[in-house]
Amino acid sequence: MDRVVVKTPRLVLKRFSIRDAAGFFELNSDPEVLRFSGDIPFASIKEARMFIRAYRQYDLYGFGRWSVYLLGTNEYLGFCGLNFSTARQEVDLGFRLMRRVWGQGFATEAGFACLRIGFSKYGLEKIVGRAMPENAASLRVLQKLGMTYEKEFEEDGARWVQMSVRRDEFGNFYE
User: By the 8 A CB rule, do 28 and 22 touch?
Assistant: First the structure.
């Protein structure tokens, strides 16, 4: 099965694969990368493999988070994609990239591709994005993608800002 979901001018987004485990482990081993995520690091590459094997979003919804690779070099940069929450009954855009590539526009480029797929291919009406209030860089990415403030909330002891964009707004924002 072809893992490639979409190519952008600089990136290739692919379905998760066991081949991503070492990069995924490295990504989630950086405390600075995890600082605003609310997640804990994987204990080992084996644990990253187990996460990937157990990942069911593609089977359940057709979409999910996707591994992000640099076009041409196939360097693993992180992940970006959509996630359906049954508890919230909504789809969120999430991204996490290696610290060495922060500030180069990759999150915005990958995020735009994911929103476009969510609205055009999967017919979603609304996609949300969440970040901790202190995570100014991620909040700025969400704004660049056309998302606007929706609400703030607390979950598992952490404060979050939720932003969103609707399909009709997204088209107007980029056309």
Answer: no
How far is CA 12 from its chain centroid? Answer: 13
**Residue 30 to residue 164: CA distance in whole angstroms:** 28
Query: What average pLDDT does range 69-98 have in this prediction?
Result: 96
- Please report which helix (H) or strand (E) contains residue 85, including its range: strand 76-85
CA distance 138 to 84: 20
Q: Would you state the pLDDT for residue 27?
A: 95
Q: Which residues lie across from 153 on neighbouring strands?
A: 160
H-only helix segments in the chain: 21-27, 31-34, 45-54, 57-61, 106-120, 136-144, 167-174
Q: Which of 23, 66, 78 is nearest to 48 (CA)?
A: 23
CA dist 54 → 51, 59, 115 (Å): 5, 11, 24
**Which pLDDT value is given to residue 174?**
46
Model pLDDT for residues 112-122, shown as the tens digit of each residue: 999 999 999 99
Tokens, residue 105 = 């526009």
Q: Cα(first)–Cα(last) distance of the chain, in Å?
A: 33
Q: How far is CA 158 from CA 20, 38, 63, 64, 155, in A?
A: 29, 8, 27, 24, 5
Nearest-CA neighbor of 64 among 9, 20, 32, 106?
A: 20
86 secondary structure, DSSP code = T
